[in-house]
Recover the amino acids of this structure.
């Protein structure tokens, strides 16, 4: 049971955004689940939302998207600036290998970034900046919302 709890807790992304403490997110969530609040007060563990992960080739049968440009998007420069700021706060997760850009073939990062319930590859920025990809609306709102949180402190 304890192992399972730890595994679940490890997947939680309780970034200390609003109330930074010295405790790790794992400690927080274990404490929370040990409070015996019953079903109603139980924090529901969930997988992070993923953004910026592509299928391996354009023809691969996969639910993952393929990077396609949206040249009409006017929020790119602002978004990229905010993304830089957010990435400085994110937890970094090492990949087992290098990621290759699906569009131009360059080596494009070797880690994922995780913060407050989302996970995205470090190389995602390259697709947005150099290949005109526009993030999902949900991710765009998430980054802009977090930026508000960080700048208000
Ligand atoms: Zn590229």
């Amino acid at each position: 049971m304890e192992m399972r709890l730890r595994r679940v807790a490890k997947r939680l992304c309780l970034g200390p955004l609003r109330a930074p403490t010295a405790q790790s997110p794992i400690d927080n969530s274990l404490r929370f689940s040990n409070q015996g609040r019953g079903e109603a007060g139980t924090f529901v563990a969930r997988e992070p939302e993923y953004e910026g992960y592509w299928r391996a080739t354009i023809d691969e049968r996969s639910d993952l998207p393929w990077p396609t440009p949206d040249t009409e998007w006017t929020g790119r420069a602002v978004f990229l600036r905010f993304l830089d700021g957010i990435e400085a706060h994110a937890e970094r997760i090492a990949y087992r290998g290098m990621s290759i850009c699906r569009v131009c073939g360059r080596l494009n990062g070797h880690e994922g970034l995780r913060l407050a319930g989302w996970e995205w590859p470090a190389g995602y920025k390259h697709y947005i900046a150099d290949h005109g990809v526009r993030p999902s609306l949900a991710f765009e709102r998430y980054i802009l919302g977090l930026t508000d949180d960080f700048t208000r402190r």
Summary: Confidence is low (pLDDT under 50) at residues 1-38. The first helix runs from residue 2 to 11. The two ends are 38 Å apart (CA to CA). The pocket of zinc ion is lined by residues 101, 103-104, 106, 126, 130-131 (CB under 6 Å).
